Amino acid sequence: MLVVALACAVIGAGVRPAAASSAPANSGLPGSTCAAAVDRDGRYTAPPPGVTTTGLGADAPAYYEIGAPSGTHKYLPPKAIMLVIHPGGWFLVGKEVLAHWARPIADRWRAAGWETVNVDYGACGQSIVDVLWFMQRLRYLHPHTVICATGSSAGGHLAMLLATIRPDLACAISYAGPTDLRSLDHQLSSDATGGWTDAGPKMLSNYAIAAFGGDPARSPRQHVANIKARLLLATGQTDPLVPRAQDAEFANTFRAAHPAGHVDVLSLPPGDQFFVHTWVSRTSLRELRAREDALVAPLLSRSQISLGG
After folding, report:
1. pLDDT at 1
2. Widest pairwise Cα distance in the chain
3. Positive or negative, the Cα torsion across 86, 87, 89, 94?
4. Considering the chain, what is the average pLDDT of its residues?
5. Fewest C-beta atoms under 10 Å: which of 112, 219, 238, 260?
6. Do residues 50 and 307 make contact, with C-beta atoms less than 8 angstroms apart?
7. Is 22 exposed, middle or buried (0-12, 13-18, 19+ CB in 10 A)?
8. Which of 267, 229, 265 shows the shortest CA–CA distance to 250?
9. pLDDT of 288 strictly over 50
10. What does the alpha-carbon distance between residue 131 and residue 122 come to, in Å, rounded to a whole number?
């Protein structure tokens, strides 16, 4: 993925950011602008069986895929709805990146009996606007249904940000999504050697500034008081972009605002399985799945949904 490749290039070379005047769009360098980029490396394939690209209306702002429950849950009413938001530095968009990054996550939830809605979005500041549109349309069509959101990297940030805007979002799951865009510039992330670096967080901060103009309203941590959702945040311990402090500080702020609320934080140790931005252990991925099950278990008895809407 383009974002990961850029991260590896900057961190691996130990290069300090270039001057603002020379920064191209989407470079992650100071002064860089945000512009839509489409992933066209051939990873898009037609939606699999049980997935449709219609059902939310002709006015949808971006491409989407609705997946019905699969496996032993096929033909049964869905338990709930999971909104799946793809990564991409807030600028890498299109059905190719959705197919590559969102479908595997959706497949797990479909196999667990959920209906999934994988969504694309407009680049940069338009991203949260479009994600919010999809949430609003789903709520209109399913007024009594449990709706959750999950996403990776920028998608994880958008899932948590959605929770601050929509108190009817039942749960949100973030895989290596930044939660406080304002603090990235002075935090450190871990590297593969066990050391610490500021190169990745600074680059991620520059992506965020390019996308949102430094707007504090786009940092989920600044608005935890609005959140009613159950939360799960998971980040690899050797993530080169997202500092470990992001999840921990967000959780502390959330717990202070909601002593009876639910927030779960999982730091995944290194291993041989690719996660988001890095590699983690098989055991930690199994633990993550168990934490997801525990997150949603109390919600399912509240959900009312049928295949007909």
Report:
1. 44
2. 57
3. negative
4. 91
5. 260
6. no
7. exposed
8. 265
9. yes
10. 9
Distance in angstroms (rounded) separating the CA atoms of residues 86 and 108: 15
Residue with tokens 């209906």: 115
CB 121 within 8 A of CB 127: yes
pLDDT > 70 fraction of the chain, expressed in percent and rounded: 89
pLDDT in tens, 166-217: 999 999 999 999 999 999 999 999 877 778 999 999 999 999 999 999 888 9
Q: Look up residue 92 and give its two tokens.
A: 């890498």
Tokens describing residue 105: 């996550």
Antiparallel, parallel or unpaired: β 64-67 and 51-52: antiparallel
Two tokens at 139?
A: 């709520």
Name the phi and psi angles at 270, rounded to 5. -65, 155
Please give the helix or strand (H or E) that residue 160 lies within, else none: helix 154-165
Q: Are strands 81-85 and 147-152 parallel, antiparallel or unpaired?
A: parallel
Pairwise CA distance, residues 202 & 242, whole Å: 10
214-to-154, 226, 283, 302 alpha-carbon distances in Å: 15, 20, 37, 38
Check residue 24 and report its DSSP letter. Answer: P
> pLDDT tens-digit profile of 153-169?
999 999 999 999 999 99
Task: Give the residue carrying structure tokens 């799945």.
Answer: 289
Give residue-wise pLDDT tens across range 56-84.
Answer: 999 999 999 999 999 999 999 999 999 99
What span, in angstroms and rounded, lies between the C-alpha atoms of 140 and 185? 39
pLDDT for the residue numbered 302: 67
Task: Give me Rg for the CA atoms of the chain.
Answer: 18
* 70 CB-near residues (< 8 Å, 6+ apart): 50, 107, 110, 111
What is the Cα–Cα distance from 261 to 294, expressed in whole angstroms? 14
